[in-house]
Design brief:
The structure is a single chain. 75% of the residues lie in helices and 0% in strands. By secondary structure, it is an all-alpha fold. The protein has one domain: Up-down Bundle (Growth Hormone, Chain: A), CATH 1.20.1250. The chain is globular. It has 18 helices and no strands.
């Protein structure tokens, strides 16, 4: 039976909690390098700290997807995992930015920070995955692109808030510098406020969304019984449609590119505009705050571009063109010596980000109709997000040394990777 059309507000409510989750994710991606550099990390080791987030994602999301496929409670099948993940994330967000204020040695501070980072990303992944599954469960193919575009809009709106928090708190007078090895108050309070918004948004979603019971779910999601009974991950991967792997190839280059941005862009902007990469200087911390503003501008660009994407008649053209625009944006970062000129490349990067949030799941969930195990498949598909980040993080220090120790040059590497990803879009066949 065809899934019913949902009103705009029902589609909105399915994804509204993503706003809060993305604030947490934005605070993590926008401030982790800044936090660890402030705590004393060497730039050549910086990419290794970024191994933990995707590593936890590649472990947690398939588990959450598989378990939630088999979970039926009076609260739903996906929502219990959403709530648990959000609750843990809130606790960790209050602890992580205080790593340098505990009076620990440098090695102990780094270890504590890594544990907190691991728990934060685990919980964010646990809270994030159910939203994608809810759309896959309850939205028909005709509305799926619209649903993921709404999710992309909310995701980027949350990013705007999360990225701007440190800049705003500095503007209203909170300390943007601190003793050596201590994270500034602007960052600490950003995490506190982000945690409060996260739990409020998740509570809203839980109150507004009623998942289907098992009978309703099977009525609207009929599957081939032979595929439904084969539940091992290896079997699922072996039986996955070719679109799953082709989109995964595009994902590899895209997420490697963005991993290098998250890792090195604070130093790249500081080096290009403020001519320093020393985290003890006021210029570096100012650059870090301004990078948050640039991230917010990227998110605003993504919000606008997400509204444009459904208007393309050819989804593949929209996907590939968006990635090429993002590649151009990365290439421009080292050539914009004025902080306001940096707005242009980040708007272009936002186009790629909007497509990366919406397009892959549209292609894959359409291709998975009739396969069953939607949660498990989307959890496994998350490997195409996590694995490239792990590989990129392992290679980051070596690549940085090869290109002359200039973090701004890593933006050129990101540009090349994103353009290769755009070329790989041509291999995808869209099943509607």
């Amino acid at each position: 039976m065809q899934k019913p059309n949902l009103s705009f507000w029902k589609l909105w409510n399915l994804s509204f909690g993503f706003f809060g989750v993305q604030i947490a994710y934005a605070l993590q991606s926008g401030n982790i390098s800044r936090i660890f550099r402030t705590l004393g990390a060497d730039p050549h080791d910086l990419s290794y700290f970024w191994i933990l987030p995707p590593l936890m994602g590649i472990i947690v999301q398939p588990i959450v997807g598989t378990l939630s496929d088999r979970t039926w409670t009076r609260f739903g099948r996906r929502i219990p995992y959403l709530f648990i993940g959000a609750a843990v994330a809130v606790a960790v967000m209050c602890l992580l930015p205080n790593s340098g204020s505990l009076g620990l040695s440098l090695s102990a501070v780094m270890f504590f920070g890594l544990i907190m980072l691991m728990l934060l990303d685990t919980s964010i992944n646990m809270a994030m995955q159910p939203f994608k599954m809810l759309v896959g469960d309850m939205v028909n193919e005709e509305q799926k692109a619209k649903a993921y575009s709404i999710q992309s809009f909310l995701c980027n709106a949350g990013s705007v808030a999360g990225f701007l928090f440190p800049f705003i708190f500095a503007a209203i007078g909170l300390n943007n510098t601190a003793p050596e090895g201590v994270v500034p108050d602007t960052v600490i309070w950003s995490f506190y406020i982000g945690a409060a918004i996260l739990i409020a948004c998740v509570i809203y979603t839980i109150a507004k969304v009623k998942e289907w019971n098992p009978q309703e779910y099977r009525l609207y999601n009929p599957v081939d019984e032979t595929k439904e009974t084969s539940a091992s991950w290896l079997t699922l991967l072996r039986n996955a449609p070719s679109t799953f792997w082709k989109v995964g190839l595009v994902q590899f280059f895209c997420w490697a590119a963005f991993l290098y941005m998250w890792t090195y862009v604070v130093d790249a902007v500081s080096e290009t505009v403020w001519a320093t990469t020393d985290p003890a200087t006021e210029g570096y911390q100012t650059a870090a705050n301004w990078t948050g503003v640039l991230y917010a501008i990227q998110a605003l660009g993504s919000v606008c571009w997400a509204l444009v994407l459904p208007r393309f008649s050819n989804t593949k053209v929209a996907y590939g063109a968006s990635l090429l625009l993002g590649g151009l944006g990365f290439a421009l970062i080292p050539f914009c010596p004025n902080q306001y000129l940096q707005i242009i490349p980040f708007l272009l990067i936002g186009c790629a980000w909007a497509a990366m949030l919406a397009m892959p799941f549209t292609f894959v969930t359409n291709a998975l109709q009739g396969y069953g195990h939607m949660g498990a498949y989307l959890g496994l598909f998350n490997g195409t997000i996590c694995l490239p980040q792990i590989i990129a993080a392992l290679c980051g220090g070596g690549i940085l040394s090869m290109i002359g120790h200039h973090q701004s040059s890593m933006m050129i590497v990101s540009a090349i990777l994103l353009c290769v990803g755009a070329l790989c879009v041509t291999f995808i066949k869209d099943k509607r």
